[in-house]
Design goal:
alpha+beta, Cytidine Deaminase, domain 2, 2 domains, elongated, disordered N terminus, DUF4192 domain-containing protein, DUF4192
Amino acid sequence: MTTPLRPSIRLRDAGDLIAAVPHLLGFHPIDSLVLVILHGEEAHRVGLTLRTDLPPREHHAEVVSQLLLPVDRLDATGAWLAVIGGGTADPPDLPHQDLVDLTGRALTARGIPVVHAAWVAATVAGAAWACYHPDRCCTGQVPDPASSPLAAATALAGAVTYASREELAAQLAPVDGLALARRSARLELAAEAAELDRRLAGPAAVVRDLVAVHQAITDMASGRLVLGDEEVVRLAVALADHRVRDACLATADGPHAAAAEQLWLALTRGTPVPERAEPATLLAFAAYLRGDGALAGIALDTAEAAHPGHRLAGLLRRALDAGLPPARLAVLAADAAADAERLIEAGESR
């Protein structure tokens, strides 16, 4: 995940960093290894923040290799490591010492020194932390994450820090099964009608679909949008055309970007499978573009579960795993905007 907020905040010790972790990730991690990449001459600027579940010993090498994939493309000057949970501690004996050592050696081999590595049971106020460095034997308590400067910056930016990854994932939970069943039945008929319309009307039909989606975004921004069965089916049919879906990538970088992301979230929850994959992929793209890698990853999980082998979701997954900077993905949005303009021009010229 790329940290979206980069205020100038001084981290005095491991306790300050641990208090910042929930806001860097977007949720409080449980039983996790967290890696914070640092930049600058004195390694004081926070960059990429990565997290993985604590693996069993036999999978340590595989997990560390996967975790560090994005690091190779970064100009890192240091790193912090934190183990959250995973057992109890009796300093200097700390859980998962071998995992921390393996990760540290892998970072050192890449020319990235580990500035500090610490263990804590949970990212809560007053939790005791201890460092893994035998020559330091430092300990302390975690300050309240909810009252940290980064928490204030997060709130000011309108972002939410969830109690757990599960609580974040619950934001994408499908609506009730009866509504999904109704919409699934309607989608079958609507998809057949749309296919016939596209064959007869050509690009004009695609333009109508694109206009319908943009109108929904405008209505979402103004608070007028009501997503009943008819509207969800209409938008799901439109996004099922890859030309419309790809053109909608441009909405992640524009005046209605927040409204578009709200629409993709609502459609992800309200659209049956396999059509759910389209708004979920757009949600992943929008979240990643603004730096919310946690939401992007969960949205991609949803897209891939709805439609295994989904091409665009697969491309975004590789970008996420490789730590591709959001600014590079923004180029895709610009290309999509140009494609959308050419699409509209082609339809209007007929």
